[in-house]
TrEMBL record:
Cleaved signal peptide residues: 1-26
Family, per entry: Belongs to the UPF0065 (bug) family.
Taxonomic lineage: Bacteria, Pseudomonadati, Pseudomonadota, Gammaproteobacteria, Oceanospirillales
Record keywords: Receptor, Signal
Protein name: Tripartite-type tricarboxylate transporter receptor subunit TctC
Gene3D superfamilies per UniProt: Bordetella uptake gene, domain 1 (3.40.190.150), Periplasmic binding protein-like II (3.40.190.10)
Amino acid sequence: MNKLTRTLSIATLALSPLLAAAPAMAEYPERPVQFVVPWPPGDLEDILTRIIAEEMTDETGTPASVINKPGGAGIVGALDVAQSRPDGQTIGSFVADILTTHIHSGNAPYDRSTFEPVGIFLDYPFVIAANADAPYDNLEELAEYSQDHDIALGHFGYQALPTAITLQAAKQTGIRIASYAAFDENNCATLATGDADIINTTTQLILSCLKSGEVKLLTSLTQERLPIAPDVATLAEQAGITQTTWNGLFVKAGTPQEVKDRIAEIAQQALQSDRVRELSESTGAGIYWIDGAEAEEMVARDFENSKVLLDFMNQ
């Protein structure tokens, strides 16, 4: 044995007890995982996040659950993730507003660098809906009607991105909104009780009354016409507004890349299920997966676009 080999052997023997004593890196997740949905249960982001949580439980054997924390137009739930450790044990299922308009408006107790995207997975089928017997079927007819009648709008919060898009559309098409109010849920009851004449909501929340014919769509805030309402023109067609809304999974900044990769892997598996495909077909939701640099770019782009919308609303 030459001198170099003998030296290495001695060093290896000296280190052996230390190597044996060093704990192996634990495989994620180490303990139960919480997905935080900052809205009441029942809408698309909630349903899809539950499917992802179920997949994580099945895949890893570690319990994963969804915690609904509504309030503050999503800020209450977002704060839970902002105050968590960067270890992937607390995952936010966030709509675009939480990373865009809330920060611009100064009402968020976090900043642009607080969260990192794991992946964006949902193009919301946001719509403007009315009771079926309303005397207008599209934005042009609504604009004409609103000149002589008071129109009340139900929405998810004045600083919410879909609200900003809706109010911009109202201005561009000449719709006069006499009053508006924010609700945690804008559903069939919001229209049936007369709390609002039109609502800005998602198809999932009004699916039952759409199917029964009690409610109709005036437009959709989507890239393409909804398969469940192919005759209803999109907002882009009716008002030239192309911005849409999305939902994604986010973790505290500083979360290890291998943890984010594992969450992304499980989420993608879950989103390929028959349940998800059926949900997309029945609601018109765009369900996909965007992660990594592309997701970062998407958030950054919409961060700038939302500032333009807020400037419009503050004029």
